[in-house]
Amino acid sequence: MELWYTEKQTEAYGITAKIKETYVREQTDFQDLAMIETEEFGTMLILDGMVMTTVRDEFVYHEMVAHPALFTHPNPKHVLVVGGGDGGVIREILKHPSVEKAVLVDIDGKVIEYSKKYLPTIACGLEDPRVEVIVNDGYMHIHDHKNAYDVIMVDSTEPVGPAVELFSKGFYQGIYESLKEDGIFIAQTDNPWFKADLIQSVNRDVREIFPIVRVYCANIPTYPSGLWTFTMGSKKYDPLEVDETKIPEIESKYYTPRLHKAAFVLPRFVEDLCK
């Protein structure tokens, strides 16, 4: 008998993967969590029926959350990740020698626990001495830490369950206040095929708070539609003004210095959502 996992990405569309083994299925205090082994994408973390990461394609998302912002800021020392309990963004942050401290705040400790056990190549940076892991509400952490961070990265699920507040204008205002005077924030902002309204609303809210706002894209095959957007809000530095010839090469599989600016070149239909 074959077992398949299907994520319904809309009421009429989904993606499916053949399952080799189920490691964990648990209702945590915040969400339904599953860790499964798939034949095509390896180990897969699923929260509330949505694919969060897989061993095969995780590098795209994690590199593109971390590196565009960290190579735009000239000297990022203190970095916050809201969400991201699998540890992938933290792993990428640690590739930047200027970073003195990286703080991870995830509301669900079970995500962190099971990622360490079943996703060791992704969660490998969580024990690094430069990293502080906090199991708490990221929304409240932001509001309790003013003028504290050079870069803030929001590695959230889609806007359902505990992540709803992480897509609100009040949260973006809190991020602005939690950043230092030249700070940068980055958030995953879903896909333009099925969540165009979300991209428009986030872009509108962030533009009312930050003087520089840029949207960029990456290809992530296990995420809805495969085309994924990220929104950057910056107080001072424009990613399009970065001299790509001065971006050092780092260990990566997706991000490159030449891709830094190229990722901000949007398809016309995505560009239209950001006007």
TrEMBL record:
It catalyses: S-adenosyl 3-(methylsulfanyl)propylamine + putrescine = S-methyl-5'-thioadenosine + spermidine + H(+). InterPro entries: PABS, PABS_CS, SAM-dependent_MTases_sf, Spermi_synthase, Spermidine_synt_N, Spermidine_synt_N_sf. The active site is at D155 (proton acceptor). Its EC number is 2.5.1.16. It is an enzyme of class 2 (transferase). S-methyl-5'-thioadenosine binds at Q31, D106, D137, G138, P162. PROSITE patterns: PABS_1 (PS01330), PABS_2 (PS51006). GO terms for cellular component: cytosol. GO terms for molecular function: spermidine synthase activity. Pfam families: Spermine_synt_N, Spermine_synth. CDD domains: AdoMet_MTases (cd02440). It comes from the Bacteria. Pathway: Amine and polyamine biosynthesis; spermidine biosynthesis; spermidine from putrescine: step 1/1. The keyword Aminoacyl-tRNA synthetase does not apply. Keywords: Cytoplasm, Polyamine biosynthesis, Spermidine biosynthesis, Transferase. GO terms for biological process: spermidine biosynthetic process. Residues 2-235 form the PABS domain. Spermidine binds at H62, D86, D155, S156, T157, E158. The keyword Acyltransferase does not apply. Belongs to the spermidine/spermine synthase family. Homodimer or homotetramer. Catalyzes the irreversible transfer of a propylamine group from the amino donor S-adenosylmethioninamine (decarboxy-AdoMet) to putrescine (1,4-diaminobutane) to yield spermidine. PANTHER family: SPERMIDINE SYNTHASE, SPERMIDINE/SPERMINE SYNTHASE. This is Polyamine aminopropyltransferase. It comes from Paenibacillus psychroresistens.
